[in-house]
Amino acid sequence: MLKWPFASIFLMAAIGVHAQQRPLITEDVDVIPPGSVRIQAGIDFMQDAQFPLSGLSGELTRVGVIGVHVGLAPNVEFQVTGVAQNFLSINSQGRSAIPLSFPPGTSSTNDVGDFTLWAKIKLRNETRLGPALGFRFGVQLPNSNQGRGIGTNQTNAFGMLLVGKKFGRDARLNAFGNIGLGILSAPLQPFTQNDMLLYGVAGIYRLTDRINVAGEINGRANTRRGAAPLGTESQGEARLGVQVRASGLQFDFAGIKGVAGTSPRSGFTFGVTYDTPAIFTPAR
């Protein structure tokens, strides 16, 4: 599986439109128009995914990587993101720190992902010299069942500053980044949390009216001295891919490489984005 050279994703065709960053994780500063809705769905395949809390590792397939974005005002956007179903083909099963709902030797497990509610506010438009600025905050809900070995079933909170600037003729390069704080509950330590550094640096370059190239490095870093509490380990990944606009949809594809902590070794993602016209009038 996944024996393609990482650079081969340049051979894939695919376009981004304004503020559409899939297949990237790093959040753009721009918001969608008021009253419109953006619907995104994708599939991720990850090799050597690790779950230290349950002691499991294997090949992870995430089906229904969902994002629903609603424009509430010219500078405000509401988002719901999550995964409809995670499937793990178990390669190894070490010691679990929590009770699991399946016996040792089980070859696979599946579970719903934890969904996150987000609000994004654009604070400042880009100027000739200065970048655009925004803020995004969210709460991750405990939808997963920790007994399935994939999720932590914890409530977590996130907040991050968004920065973005466009460069080149006709603003061909859209560069943007995030930095912030993630407050993650420690599953095995009541009344304990791990304050994680959130980071992301990304860029989308418009090759033609229909084709974009997109890349990023995104992740979270443990800020504690020593090892992070189980379930709150550092994670990070690099993504490099393409976007294509066709038939009123945006299709995307990216290769993934783990770069930190307990991240999967490699993988790829494929998805589609649909933008509706304004379907309601936001309250003034």
TrEMBL record:
Residues 1-19 form the signal peptide. Keywords: Signal. This is MetA-pathway of phenol degradation. It comes from Pyrinomonas methylaliphatogenes.
